[in-house]
Amino acid sequence: MDLIIFKRTGDHQYHFGQNDLEDTFQHIQSDTLFxxxxxxxxxxxxxxxxxxxxxxxxxxxxxxxxxxPSLAAEGGYRVFFLPKPMTYHRVQGANVKRIKSIKFIxxxxxRKGVSAQELLDQPxxxxxxxxxxxxxxxxxxxxxxxxxxxxxxxxxxxHPKVRVHARNQEDVFYHQAVVQLNELHPKGVAPIQTQFYxxxxxxxxxxxxxxxxxxxxxxGDEGIGGERSTGKGQIDEINILPGADGxxxxxxxxxxxxxxxxxxxxxxxxxxxxxxYDLTIRGGGSLGKYKSHxxxxxxxxxxxxxxxxxxxxxxxxxxxRPQVQNGGSDIPLPIYRYGHCFSLPFEARKTTT
Length: 353
Hints:
Elements: E1 2-7, E2 12-14, E3 17-18, E4 20-24, H1 30-44, H2 47-59, E5 62-64, E6 68-72, E7 78-83, H3 96-101, E8 104-106, H4 107-112, H5 116-120, E9 124-125, E10 129-130, H6 133-139, H7 145-150, E11 154-162, E12 173-181, E13 193-202, H8 206-222, E14 237-241, E15 257-259, H9 268-271, E16 274-276, E17 279-283, E18 286-290, E19 293-296, E20 299-303, E21 308-309, E22 315-319, E23 336-340, E24 343-345
Parallel strand pairs: 8-10
Antiparallel strand pairs: 1-13, 1-14, 2-12, 3-4, 5-13, 6-7, 6-13, 7-8, 9-10, 11-12, 15-21, 15-24, 16-21, 17-20, 18-19, 22-23
């Protein structure tokens, strides 16, 4: 496995659509990243080569996780965060409200598989990012919980906007949600950069691998997410770091897995292997006017990151073209929604009372 680092210095903003303009996800969803990669690939290569890459994804020869935050210190030390597994939401003898406020856990805690109570005893950055004491000290962060809470890698805001071509006065003003990756400035320490990263598992070789990585580097120029024309979603460059297999490997053998991508289960058999999960609705966006009237993508329910699996599942890629009366579609090209499951071994220790 490799790491895709979305390198960017300073504070920077992104918009990852969640139902409407006033909502945004706090990270890059795997289906968004898949679409961005395919679009960049299509800018560089032929339609047949694009179809070949999609088939490699469909076969499972390429898997990508969602994009999560990481913290990069000046000396090169990094802490990678993963979505908090759902298993922490069903616990006894622990403060469930405080646990739910934590959104991400570090690679160090993932490897340890700490219990729910142990999770609350860890350093928690900005009230939402749990990490080990060693990771905190390596980054040069303060030990005092009150000081840690003030350092927020992510923040959200609503920006007022104006529609230039609104049909009536009521539609002129609106708000758009953005998520901002913040540069941290602990006292006495060089600035710490907050950057997105994704995990890549690729079996590509030769020219196919070169073309794929060429598309990734183009993504660094194009940016990712919505509102890029207004400065959102910018990336300085994309780095690919090899050899990430041991970074998230549990210290003790575990029986379960945790998803780190949005997932569309491929049938009931796969769905039955998911023991804890939450759902999100994806798709539905406008395709503009096609033929006689405006058309929209179909919507689909997907399993969120952090779901607990009894064993790994594959998932599937779904075509969300709008349907017509005969059950087909009059739109010629498919509109793929990436729903393959990328999971990692994980199991939390039980909380002792």
